[in-house]
Known about the structure:
Two copies of one chain form a homodimer.
Chain A: E1 15-19, H1 22-34, E2 40-44, E3 50-52, E4 55-57, H2 59-68, H3 86-93, H4 104-118, H5 123-133, E5 140-142, E6 151-154, E7 158-161, H6 162-168, E8 175-179, H7 188-196, E9 199-202, H8 207-215, H9 220-229, E10 233-237, E11 240-241, E12 244-245, H10 250-256, H11 263-269, E13 276-280, E14 311-315, H12 322-340
Parallel strand pairs in A: 1-2, 1-9, 2-5, 9-10, 10-13, 13-14
Antiparallel strand pairs in A: 3-4, 6-7, 6-8, 11-12
Amino acid sequence: VAVNTLERPLPFKSVVTLVGGVGGAKFADGLARCLPPGSLTAIVNTGDDFTRYGLTISPDLDTVMYTLGGLAHPVNGWGLEGDTAQMLGMLKRYGDDAWFGLFDRDVATHLLRTQWLTQGISLTEVTRRLSDALAIPSPILPMADRVAPTLIDTLEYGVLPFQEYFVRYHWQPTVTRVILPDGIPATRAALDALARADLIIIGPSNPLLSVEPILNCIGVRETIAARRAAGVRCIALSPIVAGQAIKGPAAKLMQELDLPVSASGVADRYEAVIDGFIVQTGDWPYPVAEIGAVSAGGAVGTSGTLSRTLSILETEIVMHSLTDRARLAEEVLTWATRLVD
Amino acid sequence: VAVNTLERPLPFKSVVTLVGGVGGAKFADGLARCLPPGSLTAIVNTGDDFTRYGLTISPDLDTVMYTLGGLAHPVNGWGLEGDTAQMLGMLKRYGDDAWFGLFDRDVATHLLRTQWLTQGISLTEVTRRLSDALAIPSPILPMADRVAPTLIDTLEYGVLPFQEYFVRYHWQPTVTRVILPDGIPATRAALDALARADLIIIGPSNPLLSVEPILNCIGVRETIAARRAAGVRCIALSPIVAGQAIKGPAAKLMQELDLPVSASGVADRYEAVIDGFIVQTGDWPYPVAEIGAVSAGGAVGTSGTLSRTLSILETEIVMHSLTDRARLAEEVLTWATRLVD
């Protein structure tokens, strides 16, 4: 925990981070390590959720929960450390193609979730029960309680459910369009957390597949706008480093959709919602000014297509270790205090 | 496989056995080892079936399938050899009491079954798919495709679902009544198998909890009666040895229900359906005549309350090993040929 290394107490009591899977989960974990228990809330993409063998599976919620619970697989980032594949082996023995990796301990999460959802309990409450049982102090909130499937239109297979694109075909199909469902209300809990937030951070997640599904939920953009109008900062971390995705399909996907594959390309996607942007050192293509106590958030870089100024923090954004997570989170939070000043 | 040790080829082409869990499964396995592939059909109790964590679980079907597939746990008799408890451990971590032992490989069976049932596929077809995948040549047929829960009325807890009585409370409550559901039709496949049978064998299963739920299904008693009228024999094995159950609650239950706890007590329960009865050597309380080729099924013992004669085979009926299963099955089949002569 890096709290004690901070030069001064952080002024944030309610930090909300919007995240998807592994990268976002790691960063959320870094934040949780820097902030007092309970002062971080993660709003998590559920556009990847799907049903397999009758189980309702929420990959991003689970990744965030396992990561914040200290249970995540240290190499994969998703799944549980030390988990086994006995059930998968038996499924294969039954002739099932078993393309989605359902590991044994992980199945317990899906069974309880599915059972409770079937009983009419909301995904928000299900997630609270599970993460409470794992003694995770940071609320983990699904973006929506309604099913909100992200669909991927591909050149090779037409429209695919997300996990078929992502896991079954290892995100190799060429994407022509990401289809987000219309009219999905964000949960009351998520909007309340945003409305109370004194700092909003979009994690280093895939902008199109993880973050935009959250921003797309009814009420999210409006609530963020209202907070910003009240002086609260919304900042984002780039998941692109030197033109490559840190992990997963972000770069390939942006290229296929004719978007600039760069940190500034990501900033462009977030143009309407962010005040500050954190990139890998050397990755920002424009001059970056230093933000001092006197500059009151005015020192900035300029993105190519951005019509306004944006505060930029250049630092080492790739997290290899637990120490990296806390160090990055501490840097980001400290920098954000200067944006607020 | 004991086939070659038989003195003469068995005259049976379609043997049907009615069974419940471990004891019946072992005996069915012995039969399968003595008979040509595909000439044994097991009709299995589904009164124990239940739903847990949203999974439809058929304990007796699984025990028979795993046993005939050579996959059963060698000590427990139920469950899969070498299975692990990762999922159960995680369920407990979530605070679940996890009283029913759902082991990891076993969960694959329940997931596929539940998924297929949800798709409207019958339990008969689900069981066929699973056992085909495990290359089991003997058809395994659920007694019913409809849900047919056996309920247990107890002194301590009132009416309990079967598995709560059996697993959760380890069959320790005092049973006042076994409640079988009314109006459950046997499956067409089960009745067809009985109607084609040239020998019907009630396995050494619990008469009240495993066998009577099968006999209670609409059409079963009638079809057995019709076959017997056509000269086909129906025989049963005692699950009681020297006044004790070989395994499980049979003796305790019979005592609680004021039934004589003995092999002949079991024979009394089957009075209306059997021609022959197999007991542990020394366990039959009446004189037992030898059945010869000339005696045409007429040599008999007499049960206390039976109004008619019954052919008795005394032998070693406890199966400790695979060899025991095949030896017992071979003895029973050989004896049955003499009943038919």
